[in-house]
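Collaborator request log, item 7. Partner lab (contact: R.S.) asked for a structural prediction of Eukaryotic translation initiation factor 3 subunit C to inform their binding assays.
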Amino acid sequence: MSRFFHGGGDSSSESSSDEEELYSTSDEEEQAEEQESSEEGEKEDSSDDEAGPAKKGLSRFLLDQASSESEGESDVEATAKVKSAKDKRFDELDATITIIQNGQKINDWGSIANEFDKLNRQVAKLQDGGKAPKAYIKCITQLEDFLNESLAKQKVTPKKMNATNARGLNAVKQKIKKNNKDYQAQIDLFRKDSDAFMESDDEEVPPPPPAKVKLQMPTEEAGEDEDKGFARVDKRGKAIPFSPESIQKHLRAILESRGRKNTDRQEQIKIMEELNKVAATPYLKIRVLQTLVSARFDLGSGTTNVMPVEHWKAAERELAALLELLEANKDHVVLENVEEWDDDDKVPVLGPDDKYIKVAGSVVSYIERLDDELTRSLQAIDPHTSEYIERLTDETSLYNIILQGLLYYETIRKDASLEVPQESLNRVIQRRLDHIYFKPAQVVKILEENSWKNVTSGIDSETTPRALSGDAGQLIHVLCNYLFEHSEGIIRARAMLCQIYFLALHDDYYKARDMMLTSHLQENIANFDVATQILYNRTLVQVGLCAFRKGLVYDAQNTLQDICGSGRQKELLAQGVMMQRYNQVSPEQERLEKQRQLPFHMHINLELLECVYLTCSMLLEIPLLAQTGSSPDIKKRVISKTYRRMLEYHERQIFTGPPENTRDHVMQASKALAAGEWKKATHFIHSIKIWELMPGAEDIKTMLAKQIQEEGLRTYLFTYAPFYDTLAVETLSTMFELESPKVSAVISKMISHEELAAALDQVTETVIFRKGVELSRLQSLALTLSDKASALIETNERTLELRTQGSANAFSRKDGRGGGQRGGGQRGGRGGARGGAHHGQRQAGGTQFTGGALGAAVRG
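Returned to partner:
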C-alpha cells in the first residue's frame, strides 16, 4: 500500500520499512531451516540476535508478546529446532527397536520379522563402514536370546501358531543367525558386560567417502580388452567382487530383494550372468541357474506384462543347461521337500553316509512356468502375422525341455530314499499330453522323433519308451493310462478328456463315445475348474464333428446341441470374449476371460462348427415339420430352437437374394428340401466352401447327398401321403434316385416307428396307405382343450400339496379324485390310449388313431 500512496508521510515510510523487515526476517528464517546446523550454532545465532539493535514494524510487536511470557529464554524456545539427518535416522532406529521390543512382549512374530528387515536397512545407512550403533547390538542380542527361548518352549510344550506368526518366526530364525555373524565381536562384548559396553564412548571414525567411479558403457565396437579397466559397482560406488566364495551372498541378497519396489531386475540378471561364469562347483552352478531362471520369470510377472522373447529363450537355454548339469552330476538332485542351505560361507559336501547333495527347488514348476509364458506370449501376438508362426516354432524346444524333465524325474524316482512325490511326475506328463492331444498323428510323430534326437542314445524312458515315438495313438494311450492309474481328481479327468479328443480327431467315434459315457464327466464337470470345463467343451465338440464325418446326423446334432444351441460358442470354447449387451462385466472378469483364451493354433473353426450344426438340424427339422404340420392336437416337438429361429427369420424376408454365407446356403437348402426339390438342396449344401477344410471333403459331400435324398423321401411321404392310396416303390426310387431296397428300408423304418400309417406289400413292391378318420376343426380343438384342462388340474394339485405339506392326498380321496381312481377312472381310458403306441405322433395328412370315449364316438 505504501508504495502507491505518497501522502501518508511518516506512516507510509514506517509501513514500508515494516514490510521490508518482515520479508527480510522471513527469508532469513527459511535459509536457517534449509541448512543443517548443530545446536551450538543455533545458540550463537540466537545470542547475536539478542545483542543486535531492536527491530521495527511487525516484528516489534512479536518481540513484545514474547517478552511478556518469558524474558530471556523465549527466543531460544520459539526458534524451531532443526535436526540433522543423522539425528533423524537415530530417532527412526529407536522407534523401530521399540516396536520390536513391544512385539516380544506380546509374542507377535509377524511384526518382529517386518521390523527386523526395516532395522537392518536403517543400520546400513547409519553404519557406513564403521561400527554398528550400540542400541542395535543390544536389540539383536536380546532378539536372538528371545528367539532361542521361544523355540525351546515350543519344543517342550508345542502350541499351534497362526499362519502369520509361524511365517514371522521362521523368517527371523533364518535371518538372525546369519545377520549376527557380522557383529559377533560386538555381541560378545555386550554379553560379557552389558553396562560397560553401553557406557563406553569409543566411536569408530567414519571412513572417508568413497571415491566416485566413472561408469562407461562399452560400445558394440569395443573389444574385450577395453572392458578390463571397468568393474561393476553398486549404488554407493563400490566395486562388486565376483568370486566363487561370494556367490552365495550375492544370491541371498538377490533373493531377498525379489518382489520389492524399485528393484532393478535387469541389473540383477546381469549380475547373475557374471556369477554363472565364475561358478566353479556343480552346486553353485545349480543355485545360480535356478535363481537366474526365476529372475527372468519375474520380468513377466503381473497381469499385463508378457515375458520378453529374448529372456524366454534365455530361460529355456538355462533350464536345459540345468537339466544337463543334473544328468551329468548324479550326486546332485533338486527336490521340493528339502530345506534350503542357509550357510553362505560354506558349500555343502557329501558326508560319509550321504549319497546325494540335495538342492531346494522344483524343476516341474520351472517347466510349467515356461509353458505358461509361451502361451501368454502367443495370446498377445496377432495370429495372422508371420511373427506368430515364428513364435510358435519355440514349442519344439519347450517340448524338448518337457521330455528331459520327464526323464529326470523318472531317474531320481528309482531311488526310494529320495522320496520324490508322484505328483511331480504326473504334472510333467500332463504338460506333455497338453502339447500333443490336439495335433494330428503325423505332426506328433515328427515332434517326438525330433525330441528324442536331442536325448543321449543310452537313455530311455520307462513310461514312454523311445519306440513309441513312431505311433502317436499308442503314445497317447500309454500317457493317459499312466495318469489313470497314478493320479486322481483334475489331472485324471483331463487325461481322459485328452484321450477322447485324440480319438475323435482321428475318426474313432464309437470308442470316443463309449469313453465319454463311461467317464460320467457330464454329471460332475461343473465341479471342476474353468480350464477343465473348457477342455470338456472342446472334446464334446470334437466328438460331434467326428459323428458327422461318420454320417451319424442325429448323434452329431444331439452332441453339438449344448454348445451351438447356446449361441456362446466363442466363450465356451475359450476362443474369444463375447460382448454382452445388457450385462456389465467388471475389469477383473474381463481380465480373467482374456487369460483363459486358447492360442490360435488350438482353435476349432467356429464357421465349420456352425455349418455342421445347421446342416444336421436341417436334416432333422424339415421332416419333423412336415410330419407335424399345423395340427393343433399334437404337441410340437422342437429339435433346435436356434435353427427354427433362423428359419422363421428367413421366411419372413420379402426378397431373398442369392446366398452369401454359410447360414444363407443352409436356409435356402432347407426351403428347397421342404418343397421336395432335393437336387436343389444338394446343390446349395455342396456350394458351401467351408467343407474343404474338413479331411475327406468329397466323401463328406457324397454322404450329405445321400442324407438329403433319404430325408427328402421322408419329407415327401409325410407331406403327400393323404393324397395316395397306394404308391409304387419303383416310382419313389425314380423320383429320388435311390435303389429300391433302400427306399423299402426307409419306408419300413417309418412304419415300424409309427411315423407313417401304411403297410408295405413286398410282393408287388407297393406302399398301401391306411385312411383314418379326418378330425374336424371342432374335434381337434376339443382334444387340445382336454389336454390343457388335465395339465391345469395336475398343476393345481401339485401346488396344493406343496402348501399343505402332503395333506392334499386326503382331500383328493374325499372328493373321489384320489390316486387309484384318477389313474384308472374315466380319464384313465383316454389318457392311456393317447399315451400308448397308436397315438404317439401325428399321422400322415391329419389321419390318426384315437382312443377313449371321444375316439369311439368319432369312429362310430
